[in-house]
Amino acid sequence: MEWREAGVLLVSKPHGETSTIIEVLTEGHGRHAGIVRGGSSRKMAPVLQPGAQLDVTWRARLEDHLGMFLVEPITSRAHLMSDRLTLAGLNALTTLIRFALPEREPHPALYRQTLTVIDMMDQEIWPLAYLRWELSLLDELGFGLDLTCCAVTGVTDGLTYISPKSGRAVATEAAGEWANKLLPFSPALIGAGTSDKDIGNGLKVTGHFLQTRLAPALGNRPLPDARQRLIDLLSR
Amino acid sequence: MSAPNDLENLIDLMARLPGLGPRSARRAVLHLVKKRALTLIPLADAIARVAETARECLNCGNIGTTDLCPICESEKRANGELCVVEDVADLWAMERAAVFKGRYHVLGGTLSALDAIGPAELRIPKLIDRVTTESISEIILALNATVDGQTTAHYIADQLEARVKVTTLAQGVPIGGELDYLDDGTISAALRARKTV
After folding, report:
1. Residue among A11, A46, A229 whose CB faces B186 most closely
2. In the CATH hierarchy, which fold is given to the domain comprising A2-76?
3. Using a CB-CB distance cutoff of 8 angstroms, which residues of chain A are in contact with residue B145?
4. What tens digit of pLDDT does each residue of A176-214 get?
5. I need a surface site. Which of A1, A21, A121, A128 has the fewest CB within 10 A?
6. Which of B55, B56, B60 is nearest to B130 (CA)?
């Protein structure tokens, strides 16, 4: 078995004295693990940092083996480590992918969006792109939100709430006495608000659905701490 | 047949050490047995003594043979500078360089979202405590230039920068390094940290 593809490095863990086990997110093979011989050497260790874009060749005798990766660096994203907010964003992104995506299941659209978010991380607007990425993650895994019109009346204007059960938008007049039980509709969720407060409110909404919809489907594991750290930094 | 079993047991134990495999462990054990008086007995005595006396310093986490390590006990090292390192091996590397004259704090690891290692699992609460009790003027974060190392550095800076000056080691071209062989990340860090000659 052999394939070659570009991918984003998600994690690198020591294996024995000289090797590492890495996980990469690729377009055609999804989240995929493998061993890199000599991965903890002085030459390879700087290359195998989370967020790096790699050209990987995976080889194994049988498809269900862990297999070996041959790795060539394409783009280092080490510059993201120098800023605490972008590093928190990178950590949130990589840990959430590992938390949510099953191994060896391709999600090409999400892969492309992941690349876009990481490449935008040296621009100020990246937190909004990250929020949109979380929405896409929910959508990709079958828990997408419908924010196009009110679930009760069908109107497309004056959407101020989101149902915590159905994930559909609700207009002000339709909310009535249920308003205090609904989630706030942040304009950032539809790309209309860019303030930190809007993005923070948007992340509360995606966090709710990650916690109440996705996590139970994955054995009720808690959401990664790295995501909360990003939210804490954004809210300052 | 207890002797061969004892030898096999020793070889098995030696083979678990870093840098040794079954064959090199076998070679080392054979050497020890041949040089019994010169190597084996002194080594066995030294290991027995260390097994009895080695412990973590209650203050900084360094390994010593008393409750407080020599660095923490030395008044000369109380110059207000505290160097935070991930592991005892990093502390020893800093001491080898013999350029830092302050005290250390060993975290015992780095924050890791993947391995669920949070601040409570490290010696971060003790570090915050030391900043107030030891009149520290500067914290030097000497953590690895990895994602986990830098995440830990940013977290500690968040906790302490309001109380004390927090600095970190520079990143860039190593002594003797050739640009042609450096990775993109190191070159980028070196360029960002450039200085006037």
Report:
1. A46
2. OB fold (Dihydrolipoamide Acetyltransferase, E2P) (2.40.50)
3. 46, 78, 81
4. 888 889 999 999 999 887 788 899 999 999 999 999 999
5. A1
6. B60
Domains of chain B, each with CATH number or no CATH: 2-53 (1.10.8.420), 63-165 (3.40.1360.10)
Q: How far apart are CA A201 and CA A196, in angstroms?
A: 9
Amino acid at A81: M
pTM reported for the whole predicted model: 0.86
Q: What CATH homologous superfamily does A80-235 map to?
A: Recombination protein O, C-terminal domain (1.20.1440.120)
- Measured in degrees and rounded to the nearest 5, phi and psi for residue A135 equal -60, -40
Whether ipTM > 0.90 holds is no
Flag whether pLDDT at A106 surpasses 70.
Answer: yes
How many angstroms separate the Cα of B82 from the Cα of each of A125, B101, B124, B157? 37, 9, 13, 13
CA-CA distance, B157 to B165, in Å (whole number)?
A: 9
Whether A89 contacts chain B with CB within 8 A: no
Chain B residues contacting A, CB < 8 Å?
A: 18-19, 113-114, 116, 118, 145-147, 150-151, 154-155, 157-158, 183-186, 188-189, 192
Stretch 32-71 of chain A: residues touching chain B, C-beta under 8 Å = 45-47, 49-51
CB proximity under 8 Å: A 121-180 to B: none
